[in-house]
């Protein structure tokens, strides 16, 4: 009987300790490097950078426009035509993706709600576009998931998937 009670007490303590440890919240500010992390549950990242373009020609994103943001919302100036959104040059991404293999993910949203205005994503010097379709065109109320990957000091890859 004592053995059973001891086992029940130990199991209860083990359960309570495991439960309290699994619900701890960890906050990290600044730049940190981690390895061998197992993540269970939810992960919330970023914020929203919202911009309105007054042009249906080229709008060039700077590193500061995407750094720290999970979503970039673009509202076009007119309800027709195509706005071209250029990604930053590889040399201007030196803080965001510093080392070979570093990645950064974000979403671009075409927030134009009327007409047939589309948003086309293009690359800039040193960045190679890889995508499922031939041209990454984001339709009205559509979005694109962009993953920037540092290849080396002079090259990066932009994987783009439109939805």
Entry summary:
The chain contains two helices and ten strands, in the order H-E-E-H-E-E-E-E-E-E-E-E. With 163 residues, it is α/β, with parallel strands linked by helices.
Walk me through the structure.
With 163 residues, this protein is α/β, with parallel strands linked by helices. The protein has one domain. It has helices at 2-22, 63-66, and strands at 48-52, 58-60, 71-75, 82-86, 103-110, 118-122, 127-131, 137-138, 143-152, 155-162. It has a 6-stranded mixed beta sheet, with no helix packed on it. A 4-stranded mixed beta sheet has the order 2-4-6-8, with no helix packed on it. Mean pLDDT is 75; it is low at 18-23.
Q: Which sequence of SSEs, written as H and E, runs from N to C?
A: HEEHEEEEEEEE
- Please state the structural category: alpha/beta
Percent of residues in helices comes to 10-25%
Overall, the morphology is globular
Helix-strand blueprint:
Layout: H1 2-22, E1 48-52, E2 58-60, H2 63-66, E3 71-75, E4 82-86, E5 103-110, E6 118-122, E7 127-131, E8 137-138, E9 143-152, E10 155-162
Parallel strand pairs: 1-3, 2-4, 3-5, 4-6, 7-10
Antiparallel strand pairs: 5-9, 6-8, 9-10
Features:
globular; 163 residues; 6-stranded mixed beta sheet; 4-stranded mixed beta sheet; alpha/beta
């Amino acid at each position: 009987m004592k053995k059973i009670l001891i086992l029940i007490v130990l199991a209860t303590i083990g359960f309570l300790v495991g439960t309290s440890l699994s619900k701890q919240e960890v906050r990290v500010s600044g730049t940190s490097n981690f390895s061998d992390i197992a993540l269970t549950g939810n992960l919330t990242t970023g914020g929203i950078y919202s911009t309105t373009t007054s042009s249906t020609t080229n709008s060039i994103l700077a590193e500061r426009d995407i750094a720290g943001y999970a979503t970039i919302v673009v509202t076009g100036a007119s309800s027709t035509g195509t706005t071209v959104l250029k990604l930053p040059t590889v040399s201007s991404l030196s803080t965001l993706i510093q080392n070979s293999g570093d990645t950064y993910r974000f979403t671009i949203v075409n927030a134009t709600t009327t007409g047939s205005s589309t948003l086309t994503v293009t690359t800039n010097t040193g960045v190679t576009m890889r995508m499922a379709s031939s041209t990454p065109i984001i339709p009205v109320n559509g979005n694109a998931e962009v993953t920037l990957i540092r290849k080396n000091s002079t090259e990066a890859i932009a994987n783009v998937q439109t939805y």
